[in-house]
């Protein structure tokens, strides 16, 4: 797993509807942040591994999301495609701290570079 450079506050968990998502645009990626019916939060890159579908616009059910374009189902916990489909959506670290959702960005996502 890539090292986390920084944790970004993306607001109260209550701002994400249950069984819904919001997105976070970083320097390099758009991240989909999902909230489940049981108030867990997960994050994946907002780019389906099949044909780049916007996973944030998918349907959240249990701890899974169904891509809005061709209905592939991905685990929110692992990013892995379910059933007979192959593929894995890129997982992004995400947690709730005192009611606030935090997303862990890698150095590249944070858009930071080391000099020299
Ligand atoms: S783009 Fe997601 S299933 Fe095809």
UniProtKB/TrEMBL annotation:
Pfam families per the UniProt record, alphabetical: Rieske
One Gene Ontology term from the biological process aspect of the record: nitrate assimilation
Sequence ranges assigned to domain Rieske in this UniProt record: 8-103
Protein origin, superkingdom: Bacteria
GO molecular function: 2 iron, 2 sulfur cluster binding; metal ion binding; nitrite reductase [NAD(P)H] activity
Family annotation (NCBIfam families): nirD_assim_sml (TIGR02378)
Gene3D superfamilies: Rieske [2Fe-2S] iron-sulphur domain
PROSITE patterns linked to this entry: RIESKE
Recorded name of the encoding gene: nirD
UniProt keyword annotations, A-Z: 2Fe-2S, Iron, Iron-sulfur, Metal-binding, Nitrate assimilation, Oxidoreductase
Entry annotated with the keyword Isomerase: no
Protein name: Nitrite reductase (NAD(P)H) small subunit
Database matches in SUPFAM superfamilies: ISP domain
């Amino acid at each position: 797993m890539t090292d986390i450079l920084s944790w970004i506050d993306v607001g109260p968990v209550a701002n994400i509807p249950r069984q819904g998502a919001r997105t976070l645009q970083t320097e390099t990626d758009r991240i989909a942040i999902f909230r489940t019916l049981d108030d867990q939060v997960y994050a994946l890159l907002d780019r389906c591994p099949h044909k780049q579908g916007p996973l944030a616009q998918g349907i959240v059910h249990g701890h899974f999301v169904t891509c809005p374009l061709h209905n592939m189902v991905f685990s929110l916990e692992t990013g892995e495609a379910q059933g007979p489909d192959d593929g894995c959506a890129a997982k992004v670290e995400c947690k709730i701290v005192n009611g606030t959702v935090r997303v862990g960005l890698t150095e590249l996502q944070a858009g930071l570079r080391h000099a020299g």
